[in-house]
Amino acid sequence: MREICIDYKQLGNRIRTERKRQLLTQGKLAEMVEISPSFLGHIERGTRKASVETIIGLSLRLGISMDELFTESYDMIYGEKNGILI
């Protein structure tokens, strides 16, 4: 069985880094994505998980692709069934 594990702290760091690079405050980006600044802070720290819709909104507002956003944020873990990697 194949499983995807997302490192939410890494994802949050990527969002924070890009937000700061663009000189956006948490409040401004949160307003653009229609979430609370507090929730954005949790996303950036990796203490809360965002919905797919929110992550897409962040990607669009920051002008970066989902690939860029998730780079180094996930690992594929492969299970083994009857000696065969699946």
What does this structure look like?
With 86 residues, the chain is α+β, with helices and mostly antiparallel strands. It has helices at residues 8-21, 26-33, 37-45, 52-62, 66-70, and strands spanning 2-6, 74-78, 80-81, 84-85. The protein is built from five helices and four strands, in the order βαααααβββ. It is 55% helix and 16% strand. A two-stranded antiparallel sheet has the order 1-2. Strands 3-4 form a two-stranded antiparallel ribbon. The protein starts with a strand and ends with a strand.
> What's the end-to-end separation, in Å?
6 Å
Helix content range: 40-55%
Shape: globular
CATH architecture: Orthogonal Bundle
What is the helix tally?
5
Q: Please state the structural category.
A: alpha+beta
Strand order of the largest sheet: 1-2
Kindly summarize this structure in a few lines.
With 86 residues, the protein is an alpha+beta fold. It has five helices and four strands, in the order βαααααβββ. The chain has one domain (2-81): lambda repressor-like DNA-binding domains (434 Repressor (Amino-terminal Domain)).
Which helices and strands appear, and what pairs or packs with what?
Elements: E1 2-6, H1 8-21, H2 26-33, H3 37-45, H4 52-62, H5 66-70, E2 74-78, E3 80-81, E4 84-85
Antiparallel strand pairs: 1-2, 3-4
Helix pairs in contact: 1-3, 2-3
Features:
86 residues, alpha+beta, 434 Repressor (Amino-terminal Domain), two-stranded antiparallel ribbon, 4 strands, globular
